[in-house]
Write a structure and sequence with these properties.
The structure holds 2 protein chains of 2 kinds.
Chain A (H helix, E strand, L loop, with lengths): L2 E6 L1 H7 L3 E5 L4 H12 L11 E5 L2 E2 L12 E6 L5
Parallel strand pairs in A: 1-5
Antiparallel strand pairs in A: 1-2, 3-4, 3-5
Chain B lengths: L8 E6 L4 E6 L2 H7 L2 H12 L13 E5 L13 E6 L6 E6 L3 H8 L3 E5 L6 E6 L2 E6 L8 H12 L4 E4 L2 H4 L7 E3 L2 E3 L4 H7 L2 E7 L9 H17 L2 H9 L5 H6 L21 H7 L1 E5 L9 E5 L9 E3 L3 H6 L9 H14 L3 H16 L5 H4 L8 H13 L2 H6 L3 H8 L9 E2 L2 E2 L9 H9 L12 H6 L13 H18 L11 H12 L7 H21 L9 H5 L14 H12 L9 H6 L4
Parallel strand pairs in B: 1-6, 7-12
Antiparallel strand pairs in B: 1-2, 3-4, 3-6, 4-5, 7-8, 9-12, 10-11, 13-14, 14-15, 16-17
The chains are: A alpha+beta, B alpha+beta.
């Protein structure tokens, strides 16, 4: 069970009231999202690709193998078109 | 002739002899160039004397609206100001929202063209078909807020104002035109206005526009407003955080430049995050004409040494320019610097960028504290604020920095050119392309120099899940950048805000344009996108005629490896992307459009 850092940004932070947390999760990213939902008590995962996307160590989760490793950083990022 | 959506009128004012003419805009011109940027590009290409001095009376300043400007369409408060730039020597169109564009159309004009130079400072007053000039002697030297206040008291609150501040009066290449707290910011349009001895334009009108198919237009608008409301961007993050919605994400992905692009992860990012802005600073949300998003914020500093200071913003670019770029993590200083830029009438991106550049010169011993007179090192917020003031006033080293980073580096020498973070003379904004390769191509090929508003590949490279691209690959970048540059040329010509594209498809925008104007070619999305390509090729021709330098990036981005963040070790592989880009564009290996391409676009 890797221990990772989870960061919540923008609207996801507003929803959870949390800026970050340290948590042990399953290596499978999708399983990990469910565990994070359970931890924060909000069904965030249903908003994936609708309200937010994920960065794993700073890269969009769709570009990686969707496997989490110890000390990874997982960030919930509001879907946006620009700055 | 009946015009739908457009007024069909161009007002041309000669400031030298204070005369004006009103002429009709042809349907062919509007069909081929849409309005806004496209219309301004055609006018400047046809009428501007090649090689003219940007600050000479021969330069022209074009204020151009689009068909959607001032209509029921959402986010339709936009217009452009275009000229030959005194900062870059090439094309500039600077786009702003607010209320000036809609008011110009109510006054009866799609476009206002300013030529010549007044012998004394003037204010131009446009009240419908009544045009007059008044002395601006009493306004000269006032900041932009004071100027707005005096003009509104004089002419009435329903007049919309655009003016320059002290920086524009001094012809500083970093100067902007400010309109009701919105800025036509980039590449020195304020100096062009100042060179014409024009302090301000005050506009009022009571006219209305005709709609070609009101029922269809209303239906399309309803659909558009709904799309904007349900989008996670325009209906979620942007109303709450404004452009700062991306702040933390940019830092997390290692895109956020630190200390003049020496690294790309800011250790104090949490202090300047979107959440800190919203929680600690924002007092109210503000919207431009016809905008349900209200991305603009009015902020006031509640504590610390800058307590009581305020600004419209802070925008993401400024949270960077006066934040990580200068090593500052005090949001109060960001707000203070941003407001000073507005007051003096300066481009805040370029101002923050060039101060960060000067700080690196201090770090490297190229600039000495004893020469500057104070300690302009990274992280010294008071020195940063002091330099903003000096640039605005043209004092001390501020006089040199106000010429821009390229000119400053040329004066300082000693290798400073290698880390002047500019493209074609325009200072780069808040994204390090070593962590998002597409942005490197976008910077290098932007028609006004180092700019993020011609294409922003960071969305598919990092922030979105459709059309996704690997940020560290060159694959698809050329095609994406080319297509987005064309599409944004359409949007910047339409009078709609770029942010609308975060929720609306090109087809939805084109349908609005057609229902409004009835122009047949606007029924066909491909034809409208071809108009965007035509406009982008025309600004390219303008730049080539003015002797634009080759498409490249600052040496740091091409030769120095990114030292931190997810993109650690990267350099921008520009040459490969550029080769493919020219091929897709139908340009030769030097970036010159080929004859076949120009013929296809009707530009021969």
């Amino acid at each position: 069970m890797p221990r990772i850092t989870v960061k919540f940004f923008a609207t996801v932070r507003a929803k959870t009231g949390l800026s970050s947390l340290e948590i042990e999760v399953a290596p499978d990213l999708m399983e990990a999202l469910t565990e994070i939902d359970n931890h924060v008590g909000i069904p965030l995962a249903q908003g994936l690709d609708q309200e937010f996307t994920l960065l794993v160590n700073g890269r969009n989760y769709l570009l990686g193998d969707k496997v989490l490793r110890p000390n990874d950083r997982l960030a919930y990022v509001t879907l946006t078109g620009g700055g | 002739m009946t015009y739908f959506g457009y007024t069909g009128k161009r007002l041309t004012v000669n400031l030298t002899d204070q005369t004006w003419t009103v002429s009709e805009l042809s349907q062919d011109l509007l069909s081929s160039y849409i309005g806004g940027k496209g219309l301004a590009a055609r006018i400047l290409y046809d009428e501007l004397e090649a090689g003219c001095g940007p600050l000479s009376p021969q330069n022209m300043l074009v204020f151009a609206t689009g068909p959607l400007t001032g209509t029921l369409a959402p986010l339709s408060g936009r217009m452009v100001v275009a000229a030959k730039s005194p900062l870059t020597g090439i094309w500039v169109d600077s786009n702003a929202g607010g209320f000036l564009g809609p008011e110009l159309k109510k006054a009866g004009y799609d476009v206002l063209v300013l030529t010549g130079k007044a012998s004394n400072p003037l204010t131009l007053i446009i009240n419908g078909d009544q045009i007059r000039f008044e002395s601006a002697d009493r306004l000269w030297g006032l900041d932009t807020e004071e100027t707005h206040k005096v003009l509104k008291q004089t002419y009435g609150q329903d007049f919309r104002i655009a003016c320059i501040g002290p920086a524009g009066e001094r012809l500083m290449p970093l100067s902007a035109i400010i309109s009701e707290m919105r800025a036509f910011g980039r590449a020195g349009v304020g100096a062009v206005m100042g060179s014409k001895n024009l302090k301000a334009v005050a506009v009022h009108g009571q006219g209305s526009l005709q709609v070609f198919d009101p029922e269809e237009f209303l239906l399309n608008n309803k659909e558009a407003y709904n799309e904007l409301a349900i989008s996670p961007d325009t209906g979620g993050g942007r109303p709450r955080y404004g452009t700062n919605v991306i702040y933390s994400a940019m830092n997390e992905s290692g895109v956020h430049p630190v200390h003049n692009f020496q690294s790309s992860v800011f250790e104090h990012a949490e202090d300047l995050s979107e959440e800190r802005m919203r929680a600690d600073l924002v007092e109210k949300d503000k919207a431009c004409f016809g905008c349900p998003v209200a991305c603009s914020k009015f902020s006031k500093v509640k504590k610390g040494k800058y307590k009581g200071n305020y600004a419209e913003g802070p925008e993401y670019e400024n949270s960077w320019a006066f934040g990580a770029q200068c090593g500052n993590n005090d949001y109060g200083a960001v707000v203070t610097a941003e407001h000073l830029c507005d007051l003096y009438g300066m481009d805040s991106i370029s101002t923050g960028n060039v101060i960060g550049f000067a700080m690196e010169c201090v770090q490297r011993g190229i600039l000495k504290t004893e020469d500057i007179g104070y300690d302009l090192r990274f992280g010294n917020t008071e020195a940063m604020i002091r330099m903003v003031r000096q640039i605005g006033k043209g004092e001390g080293y501020g006089r040199l920095l106000g010429q821009g980073s390229k000119a400053t580096a040329a004066v300082l020498g000693n290798g400073a050119e290698d880390f002047a973070m500019q493209v074609k003379g325009l200072e780069l904004p808040a994204y390090d392309p070593r962590a998002v390769y597409g942005m490197g191509l976008a910077y290098a090929t932007s028609d006004r120099g180092g700019c993020h508003l011609r294409s922003w590949p960071i969305a598919p490279e990092i922030l979105q899940t459709h059309g996704r691209m690997d940020p560290y690959s060159i694959e698809f970048k050329a095609e994406f950048v080319k297509n987005e540059q064309d599409m944004i040329s359409v949007v910047d010509s339409s009078g709609m805000c770029l942010f609308a594209t975060f929720a609306l498809s090109p087809r939805q925008i084109v349908r609005l344009m057609h229902a409004l104007t009835g122009i047949a070619s606007f029924l066909d999305t491909n034809k409208v996108l071809e108009a965007g390509e035509r406009i982008y090729n025309l600004t390219r021709l303008f730049n080539l005629r003015e002797g634009v330098e080759r498409d490249t990036l600052p040496p740091r981005l091409l030769t120095e490896e990114l030292p931190d963040g997810p993109g650690k070790g990267n350099k921008v592989p520009l040459a490969e992307m550029l080769e493919e880009y020219y091929l897709i564009r139908g340009w030769d290996e030097n970036g010159q459009p080929l004859r076949e391409k120009l013929e296809q676009l009707g530009l021969v």
